[in-house]
Amino acid sequence: MDNSVYKFIEVAGFSEKSWEEAAKVAVTTVDKSIRDMRVAEVLTMDMRLEDNRIIGYRVKLKVSFKIE
């Protein structure tokens, strides 16, 4: 197996539909600027509220990618 080094960053995604969609938004956005992502770990999930109603979902992720 090849020796490798990985970097970890934290990102947050938001969606009005679901936590799953919020995570997809985050990963899709990171994919535009970082190559070779390996793992995305969910750190926290929360909701944005307005007038006691859920108006959106936020997911904070820790994303790892291989450093070349």
Task: Give a verbal description of the structure.
This protein is of the alpha+beta class and 68 residues long. The chain has one domain: Flavin-binding protein dodecin (Dodecin subunit-like), CATH 3.30.1660.10. It contains 1 helix and 3 strands. It has a 3-stranded antiparallel sheet. Strand 2 and strand 3 (53-67) form a beta hairpin. The two termini are 15 Å apart. The model has no long low-confidence stretch (mean pLDDT 94).
Structural class based on helices, strands and sheet pairing: alpha+beta
Report the sheet-strand fraction: over 45%
CATH architecture: 2-Layer Sandwich
Strand order of the largest sheet: 1-3-2
The largest pleated sheet is described as: 3 strands, antiparallel
CATH evolutionary superfamily: Flavin-binding protein dodecin
Keywords:
1 helix, 3-stranded antiparallel β-sheet, 68 residues, alpha+beta, Dodecin subunit-like
Can you summarize this structure?
This protein is of the alpha+beta class and 68 residues long. Helices cover 19% and strands 59% of the residues.
